Amino acid sequence: MDTKIEFIRRYEKYSLLITAGDDRNGEDPAFSIFLDFPVVLKDIKGAKKKLRYDVWSTTKEGYLGEVEAKDLYGSQYKITDLWTVEEEAVRLDRKLECIRCVKETGIHLTTEFRCRGGLEKSFDDYQFIVPGAFYNKNDTDEDGVEDYLGTYSQDYKDDRNPSLSVTSYARKSKYYVSLIRADLPQKDTTITRQQIQKRYFIHDTDIGSLGMAPSEYHAGEYILRCDYPFCERNTFCLNVDGSGWEAYKAVKEGMVSEMSYLLQTGKARNLTDASWQTTAMQMERLLHGEIRPPVGLEESRHYRREMVLHSFREFPDKKGKPAGYFIHFSPRQGYGEQNLLEYGFCGAQTLLALDMLTAAWEGADGVTCREDYRESALKTLDYFVENCIEKSGLPVGLYHVDKEKTVYWWTGILLPFQYSNDRKELEDYLGNQVVGALMSIAGELGKVKGNYSRSMTDTMYYLMKCYLAEKENGQEHPKWLAAVLDFCERLLKMQNTNGSWNRGYTMEGEPLVYPLEWFGSSEKERGSGAIFPIPLLVEVSRYTGEKKYLDAAERAADFILANYAAEAEYIGGINDTSHKKSVKLDAASVMFVMRSLLAVYEETKNVEYLSGALDAARILASWTYLWDIPFDENTLLGRHKFKTTGWAGCDVIPAGSYVDCSFQEVVPELLRLAEYCRDEKLVKLAEAVTKGMQYGLSSPADMYGYAMPGVQCEGYMTSLWLADTEYKEFSGAAAKNKGDDNDTCNGFVNGMALLNLDSLGKNYDTLDFGKIFMRIKQEWPKA
Questions:
Q1: Alpha helices of 515-666 — where are they, by DSSP H?
Q2: In its UniProt record, which GO terms are filed under biological process (predicted)?
């Protein structure tokens, strides 16, 4: 890449211009980045100094720009910027010094990069990715307004940024620019409630922020920016109003702070390609050395299996004799009340049953080694098939054992609404902001008996897997198969003419439209149920030999390619959220798209589906933390030396402050995709996810304060989210501080982890990734 740096004299000082790419007709560069004021210094009173360099010089390392400035108290600072042109990027190494302190205060640094493509005329000509938070334009309801914060002026703290980058893409020029925090933040301290209330405060932290905005200077350009310490001008970290906040560095004489940034530039085919080039570079920079999980993979599998088994309960005196795995509880309180059987999504009964059947049939020569594992699975599945499927063929989502009745909708964040409609009581659990956002939606949902497409498909997909696992070992369960086939027939009838399925349905199979925030305001949003059924339909087509199921899967795959993969807008993976808009961009959506497109490719060998699956995998990598966030040593995660590498952001828009356990469910597909595409980086990603996600798991060596070994929370707080809400007892992510867990254990936590570990053992005969990598390379198609 032909990249040039030059200093522009302006009013006896110096600005900076970076140009990239070949000249067009020998005139304008393909891309330019202008720093009119290379740094803005601001004190905690809000006084700003826009600074150009006093002098610049050429050194053997690169170009040196220097500036001295005083704050309103007379304290004096020196800022030294070293600019270096590297092979893939331009590097900025910045040093801030307080050379004379008159009064102790706090200061803050900002740099704005004015970026402009040679062919772009307006902000609409650019696309963006802030990993784990902002994809394309965040406008999947297609109303021309950003869906969550309502503004394109957005900034994200480093601890909310999985790869410490912001990527921009010029659609006409086919160039991208990524702004990257090059050095890793090393220290952070817990933000107090008093600081949250102040909004602008001195803070002992190395956490900065990266952001973007439309340009106020030229219609054809946009702004990338970095702040140190962090500044979030519009954010849901604090409240649903999107209030901003900003940290300042304490000033003392002799104080020195250093930070580094990269500007990566290059050509790209599309936004996904641009994002992947940045992610791939960051993987090379950050994922080096072996990841050592605190619990060995085999040991982890043992503890997880035992916890699942011990959660099993049956109630012979209740109607239908309910049985299942009662895993929805605070990990500090054991198994809780054990009165709700959850199917699909976070309940994952049939997935847990598959895990138990896999454990049971591990013995040699088809002899079960643990009959108690198998017995728990059989009772769970038989009860479900005989009691929890409606006449329409659609399965229910929850069953309340104590009340002996089916419960609708209240999964995940909405669970407390199942127990109460008293606002004060609900606020004790959810906080006033979440209740305010969801109260009316819960009221609307409460009028309808229905279920989510994801929950229904989750349940039936793993029921089919259970049927096949038993059949492989000579055991036949015709009722299980009949239930799956009935459901698939209903799926064929419910499929929309455009190939999609809706997000939710009544129990008679009628698509649900209202509330719009929950079920979609555009064709793209309403049809996001398309990302779930494909693997099941492919599996059933393969088993029965009936092409109609594969035909339906292909139509859905075509809808996915056109609506989600093409523009990196993956939506609908999570059933319910704490936000005003449930149909949202999230990591789970990318996971389901990758798995679905891969399933169709493996059956049809149509390379368009393989290419789409690879695109999804590369976007999924952008959701995955490639570095270890620093935690205050006095927090739960700090005390236990929790590491974030390998964890993916969850439910992240509009906050991006939370990681969860979902990625492990699709690691088997990621490895198969790596094999087909001969992609070593995807193998490395799978290893980071598998090993990294063992952090937080209780074991005799480190119990995390949990009630038993084998417990892992659904998620962990990497930053703040709705932090100034009023709350009392809430068990979940909102209103928690950085370094907390979400105090919730769900069925899919161990269900997904065991699925991954068991698949590794079955497919590669080992849990050693060194051996797995060699095995995969041996299976790579010949070039």
A1: 516-519, 523-526, 534-544, 547-560, 587-604, 607-622, 636-639
A2: carbohydrate metabolic process
**Final residue of a structural domain among 263, 286, 309:** 286
Looking at residue 365, what DSSP letter applies? G
Inter-residue contact 430 to 442 (CB < 8 Å)? no
d(CA 667, CA 661): 12
Is 649 part of any domain? yes
Q: Which of 254, 286, 318 is the last residue of a domain?
A: 286
- Residue 577 resides in a domain: no
In the 8-state DSSP scheme, what is residue 666?
A: G
Beta strand residue intervals within 280-361, DSSP E: 312-314, 323-325, 328-329, 340-342
Range(s) of the domain holding residue 156: 3-286
Residues 597, 644: Cα–Cα separation, whole Å: 28
| CA–CA distance, 760 with 753 (Å, rounded to integer) | 11
| 233-261 core/surface letters (b: 16 or more CB in 10 A; e: else) | bbbbbbebebbebbbbbebeeebeeebbb
Q: What is the dihedral of CA 728, 729, 732, 736, to 10 degrees?
A: 40
CA angle at 388 for the pair 386 and 391, rounded to the nearest 5°: 85
- Rounded to a whole number of angstroms, the distance between the first and last alpha carbons of the chain is 28
CA–CA separation, 179 vs 167, rounded Å? Answer: 7
Residue 388 CA to chain centroid, in angstroms? 31
Give the model's confidence band at 364: pLDDT under 50 very low, under 70 low, under 90 confident, else very high. very low
Q: What are phi and psi of 43, to 5 degrees?
A: -95, 170
Both tokens of residue 751? 């269900």
| Amino acid symbol at 48 | K
SS (H, E, C) 398-440: EEECCCCEEECCCCHHHCHHHHCCCHHHHHHHHHHHHHHHHHH
Domain count for the chain:
2
Region of 365 please: left (phi>0), alpha (psi -120 to 50) or beta: left
Mean pLDDT (whole number) for 762-769 = 94
**Chain segment 91-127, per-residue pLDDT in tens:** 999 999 999 999 889 999 999 999 999 999 999 999 9
Two tokens at 394?
């659609």
**Inside any domain, residue 326:** no
Is the confidence at residue 654, as pLDDT, over 80?
Answer: no
How far are the Cα atoms of 148, 171, 252, 567, 569 from residue 139, in angstroms, in the given order?
9, 17, 45, 11, 9
CATH of residue 268's domain is 2.70.98
Lowest mean pLDDT among 7-11, 17-21, 324-328, 638-642: 17-21
Helix (H, G, I), strand (E, B) or coil at 222: strand
Measured CA distances, 342 to 64, 518, 570 (Å): 61, 20, 26
Contact criterion met (CB below 8 Å) for 668 and 689:
no
ω before 29 within 30° of 0 (cis)?
A: no
Pairing of strands 231-232, 245-250: antiparallel
Q: Is residue 464 included in any domain, yes or no?
A: no
Strands 200-202 and 245-250: what pairing? parallel
Decide: residue 40, CB within 10 A, 0-12 exposed, 13-18 middle, 19+ buried: middle
CA angle 655, 530, 545 (to 5 degrees): 145
The per-residue pLDDT for range 545-595, each reduced to its tens digit, is 999 999 999 999 999 999 999 999 999 998 877 766 788 899 999 999 999
| Strand pairing category for 405-407 and 745-746 | unpaired
* Rg of the chain on CA atoms, in Å: 27
Q: How many CB atoms lie within 10 A of CB 489?
A: 14
Cα 396 off chain centre by? 27
Give 649's DSSP letter.
E
The pTM is what? Answer: 0.96
